[in-house]
Amino acid sequence: MGISAGKKLGNAVTRNAVKRKIRHAIMELSPDLTNHDFVIIARKGVEELDYHEVKKNLQHVLRLAKLYQKGLECEKEN
Prior knowledge:
The chain has 78 residues and is mostly helical. Helices cover 49% and strands 10% of the residues. The chain is built from three helices and two strands. It has helices spanning 12-29, 51-64, 72-77, and strands at residues 2-5, 39-42. The chain has a two-stranded parallel sheet with strand order 1-2. The longest helix is centred in the first third of the chain and has 18 residues, at 12-29. The protein is elongated.
């Protein structure tokens, strides 16, 4: 997995904080991720989100990409 945070997000401190949030969220989600390589590109606005919003957004995007498996079996049954 790679994380990219461009200079449009802010200074180095801000970019590193964003990357830390994303990295931590991915570590928590990793047991349910499929075994693929991917790159996460942080876009403008993510620096204003708290950790839980970042994690929720990552779960949503990873489900759309079919990289996150948790809960998919339950959703198919409904």
